[in-house]
Design goal:
alpha/beta; six-stranded mixed β-sheet; 12% strand; globular
């Protein structure tokens, strides 16, 4: 006589229909995948993204000479200046504003400490060079503005005990080295050999034609525009009655100011 197998309770049958096979292997696999994703994300966050060589080089200090404005512009305007020169101090805000609205020009600083303003002029120039050595172009112009804002001018120098507010150990170390002095002496000698003897003086260079004009004295914006037009006319000098400008043309401020535009 065949024996009947004990019947499975209805609750157990319903449970098996709902859940089927045990689900723990799938849960373990999902947990492992999640842990792998967390590890990959944490690793990617810990690594700094690669920087392009161009971007890195742009952020590094460079120079001298130190510039402001458009370095790719057609014209380079070199300012020969002395940080103890009162006329330079008055002229600097004007030329800075002019550079800001003339996007085809880069302003380039050239140290020319005058003998009658020493040793203060060279000491302040050393400070500006050391600030720029660690901070670049923008830091250089910030130092120039700070010196002009605080110097007593005419060789009297900065007030006793006054220190540059942004000074760092790197700047202090630079001040005790020979690097800034060598750069300043080289620029001063170059200016003298080029015929520059007074401050402020300007040299306007047309990078497209290779022509340049040395301008004596503080030059107003309209006169600078006239000088730019004069240099730019070299492109069409052969087809016009305008005489060519020699690479070392020299003009005082009053003559440039009288040129028609």
């Amino acid at each position: 006589m065949e024996q009947k197998r004990p019947s499975i309770p209805m609750q157990v049958q319903a449970f098996r229909r709902r859940h089927g096979r045990p689900r723990w292997p799938w849960a373990l696999a999902a947990a492992l995948v999640l842990l792998l994703l967390i590890w990959l994300v944490s690793r990617s966050l810990g690594e700094s993204p690669p920087q392009s060589p161009a971007l890195v080089s742009m952020t590094q200090p460079s120079g001298p000479p130190w510039q402001m404005g458009n370095p790719e512009g057609r014209f380079t305007l070199t300012l020969y200046a002395d940080l103890e020169c009162p006329f330079c101090r008055e002229y600097f805000p004007q030329i800075k504003q002019w550079i800001g609205i003339n996007t085809d020009v880069a302003l380039q600083w050239h140290h020319l400490p005058l003998a009658e303003h020493e040793p203060a002029a060279s000491a302040e120039a050393r400070l500006a060079e050391c600030v720029a050595e660690t901070g670049g172009h923008a830091a250089f112009w910030q130092a120039i503005e700070w010196v002009y804002a605080h110097t007593r001018s005419d060789g009297q120098g900065l007030p006793d005990g006054l220190r540059y507010p942004e000074s760092t150990p790197a700047i202090e170390q630079c001040m005790t080295s020979e690097r800034p002095g060598a750069a300043i002496r080289a620029q001063a000698a170059e200016a003298t050999n080029s015929g520059v003897t007074a401050t402020p003086s300007l040299r306007l260079h047309d990078r497209q034609t290779g022509q340049a004009i040395l301008l004596q004295g503080p030059i107003e914006g309209d006169a600078l525009l006239s000088a730019m037009d004069m240099l730019a006319a070299e492109d069409t000098a052969s087809d016009s009655a305008i005489a060519p400008v020699t690479p070392t043309s020299e003009m005082p401020a009053d003559v440039v100011g009288d040129m028609p535009r």
